Amino acid sequence: MTNKKTFEENLTELQQIVDELQQGDVPLEKAMTQFQKGVQLSQTLEKTLSEAEKKLTQVMTADGQESDFQLNNQESSDQK
């Protein structure tokens, strides 16, 4: 059974890869492997953020259906 890494674990791993590559003393083959892994992690993180955004912009209607959350474009009375 494979444990799925959390968003934070993936972000930490990506940061470690970036830090290592920025040092510049990584052999080319390892740098290429790390770069590819970093791209994959970046895509995974972006997907997670997109899915979270979709969930956060959904609201439940009175009849239990989900609908997109819409903000009114009018200025709030607090700004006056």
What does this structure look like?
It is a single chain. It is built from two helices and two strands. The protein is mainly α. The protein has helices at 7-23, 28-56, and strands at 58-60, 66-68. It is elongated and about 60 Å long. Strands 1-2 form a two-stranded antiparallel ribbon. Residues 74-78 have low confidence and may be disordered. It has a domain at 29-61.
Keywords:
80 residues; mainly alpha; 2 helices; 57% helix; disordered C terminus
Show the helix and strand layout:
Blueprint: H1 7-23, H2 28-56, E1 58-60, E2 66-68
Antiparallel strand pairs: 1-2
Short summary of the structure?
With 80 residues, this protein is mainly alpha-helical.
Strand portion: 5-15%
The total count of strands amounts to: 2
Structural category: mainly alpha
Mean pLDDT: 84
The coarse overall form would be elongated
The separation of the N and C termini measures: 58 Å
The helical percent reads 55-70%
User: Sheet bearing the most strands, described?
Assistant: 2 strands, antiparallel
The string of secondary-structure elements, in order, is: HHEE
Strand order of the largest sheet: 1-2
Question: How many distinct helices?
Answer: 2
Rounded to the nearest angstrom, the radius of gyration is 20 Å
Low-confidence stretches: 74-78
